[in-house]
Design a protein that fits this description.
Layout (H helix, E strand, L loop, with lengths): L1 H12 L20 H4 L7 H7 L3 H29 L10 H36 L7 H23 L18 H4 L3 H30 L12 H32 L11 H36 L6 H14 L15 H13 L1 H16 L7 H23 L2 H7 L3 H31 L5 H27 L14 H31 L19 H15 L25
Helix pairs in contact: 4-5, 4-6, 4-18, 5-6, 5-8, 5-10, 5-16, 6-8, 8-9, 9-10, 9-11, 10-11, 10-13, 10-14, 10-16, 11-13, 13-14, 14-16, 14-17, 16-17, 17-18
Protein name: Cbb3-type cytochrome c oxidase subunit I
Family: Belongs to the heme-copper respiratory oxidase family.
Subcellular location: Membrane
């Protein structure tokens, strides 16, 4: 371990000839200077990706890793929904179902959600604020390379089944006493992987805060900071307070499992202590995941509504309010544990109050749409889908904030439906909107609009069929986390599974569209492929892209994006590719 740390320290401090070592505040707020580093040659092939500290390269690596995690998590849940098509176990045994459920939750939250947000933030925040790079480029690279190690630790138990290593079966919340008494190396490996992912997120958060505070261009004051950067700043602050606590909890759990300590044993109510500590992280984690997607929608939606975001300051203030209030709601996950009724009432009040700043954002988005000139591009459709799904997810969450309602619905599929309306219906849709919106900038090519529309409608229909059926299952009393169930619930479970299959097919369409378009899509020959100039809504990353495109086309017309997608011969996009 000491040798490993020495190697890492040496790698951080070394100086390279090719691009991208930018010490803290080295720009002093300089605007982007392409001649300073963009024209310098980088290593080719795999060496570039293994040694890069360029924020755009690292953003692409985060995106690739997040896509792989999405595929693995999607396969796990598809197997689960196939099993749940029948009331009895026919495909997999209950033990494997529990392992898939655990792996799916951990993968989607820690290996897909947070890394995909980091992909957008790494690539675009320096471009949006006029910075050369992230404040700590090498720390940025290390933060990413911890993730593949974490992913291997979490996923490898499935590959070791043949040698007797069982995957974790604790659920993503890892509640004791089950997580202490479960005697399997797979759970220890998962805990170590989660710990590494938390370290990665914390390092990234420090970097984003330092970058936004110190690396902005002189003309980018706080009043001109874009809404996505605002949400990333608040999210990074939440990470600094939440993830170190999660790391401490994971270490204590490992000690209980392996060294006989008694932090979370049932004697003395340690399992209640665990829930308090875990949910002090766990509920801010929801906002860690949803705030940046809110920022993406707040940035993208006005571009296709033909007007600026209505009430920009109120969106910023509501973001700050969510960041503060998110640490005062954790015990609404514990209304059924028998805690003091006065404490429950206080947490109920704050849980209801935190819905207000979220509602402010919804009204801002709707008002932006109301008076706008809408263009129903694929990114815009995903933004509208986000707003629709977020309203359903938010309203169903308000019911769970009420103590009497929560005590009835807490352990049912209602909670699963509500949570997935937020995680998939809102967060997932916002991330897809970001991918489609910035794909021309990153790849230098345009995707296939028809396939994008197919992806949207499969996702929108699949989301609502799947998760609304779960809400109905919860109202009917169907408990969550069960591989087998009463035949009376079979009809709604089958509808849920059909919706999940639609989502899976939509994901395949998305992957095919992105890969095929990256390799063979029509070239982007205009630095403003969305015609944003017509409404005066061009942001700094598109200005950078236009300059980059003009320079590289003048030099021969290859690799217009500068990020690995060659500008091969072929058709060019129209003035408005999504019309």
């Amino acid at each position: 371990m000491g040798l490993f740390l020495l190697i890492v320290a040496g790698w951080i401090t070394r100086i390279e000839d090719w691009r991208s070592y930018t010490p803290l505040a080295s720009g002093g707020g300089r605007a982007i200077d392409d001649d300073a580093y963009e024209t310098q040659e980088k290593p080719g092939g795999i060496t570039r990706w293994l040694t890069t500290v360029d924020h755009k390269d690292i953003g692409l690596l985060y995106g690739l890793f997040g896509t792989i995690a999405l595929a693995i998590g999607g396969i796990a849940v598809t197997l689960m929904r196939t099993e749940l098509f029948s009331p009895e176990s026919v495909l997999i045994q209950p033990e494997m179902y529990n392992s898939l459920m655990t792996s799916h939750g951990v993968t989607m939250l820690f290996l897909f959600g947070t890394p995909m947000i980091s992909a957008f933030a790494n690539y675009f925040i320096p471009l949006l604020i006029g910075a050369d790079d992230m404040a700590f480029p090498r720390v940025n690279a290390i933060a990413f390379w911890l993730l593949p190690i974490a992913g291997v630790l979490i996923w490898i138990p499935f590959a070791l089944l043949a040698v007797g290593v069982d995957p974790a079966q604790s659920g993503w919340t890892i509640y004791p006493p089950m997580s202490i008494e479960q005697d399997t190396l797979g759970l220890d490996l998962m805990l170590l992987g989660l710990h590494l992912s938390g370290i990665s997120a914390t390092m990234g958060a420090i970097n984003f805060i330092a970058t936004i505070f110190t690396e902005r261009a002189p003309d980018v004051g706080w009043e001109r900071l874009d809404i996505f950067s605002w949400t990333m700043l608040v999210q990074s602050g939440l990470i600094l307070f939440a993830f170190p606590l999660l790391g401490s909890v994971l270490v204590m759990l490992l000690l209980d499992r392996n060294l006989g300590t008694t932090f979370f044993t049932t004697d003395g109510g340690g399992y209640i202590l665990y829930q308090h500590l875990f949910w002090f992280f766990g509920h801010p984690e929801v906002y860690i995941l949803v705030l940046p997607p809110m920022g993406l929608v707040s940035l993208i939606l006005p571009r296709f509504a033909g007007r600026k975001l209505f009430g920009f300051k109120f969106v910023v203030y509501s973001t700050l309010a969510i960041g503060v209030l998110s640490f005062g709601v954790w015990a609404h996950h514990m209304f059924t544990t028998g805690i003091d009724p006065r404490i429950r009432a206080a947490f109920m009040a704050v849980s209801l109050a935190i819905a207000v700043p979220s509602a402010v954002k919804v009204f801002n988005w709707i008002t932006t749409l109301w008076a706008g000139r809408l263009r129903l591009t694929v990114p815009m459709l995903f933004c509208i889908g986000f707003v629709s799904n977020f309203i359903i997810g938010g309203v169903t969450g308000v019911f769970l904030a009420s103590i009497p309602v929560d005590q009835v619905l807490h352990a049912t599929y209602y909670v699963v439906g509500h949570f997935h309306y937020i995680v998939m219906g809102a967060i997932g849709f916002a991330l897809f909107a970001g991918v489609y919106y910035w794909f021309p900038l990153v790849s230098g090519r345009m995707y296939q609009r028809k396939l994008g529309l197919v992806h949207f409608w499969l996702s929108f229909i699949g989301t609502n069929v799947t998760f609304f059926a779960m809400i109905l299952l919860g109202y009917g009393g169907m408990p969550r986390r069960y591989a087998e169930y009463l035949p009376a619930y079979a009809g709604l479970h089958q509808i849920t599974s059909v919706g999940a299959f639609l989502l899976f097919i939509g994901g395949l369409v998305f992957l095919f569209n992105i890969v095929q378009s990256w390799l063979e899509g029509p070239r982007v020959e205009d630095g403003d492929p969305w015609n944003l100039k017509d409404d005066g809504l061009v942001t700094q990353e598109w200005t950078w892209f236009e300059r980059k495109l003009e320079t590289q086309l003048a030099d021969g017309g290859e690799d217009a994006s500068g990020d690995g997608a060659a500008m091969a011969d072929g058709g060019s996009v129209t003035d408005d590719p999504d019309e």
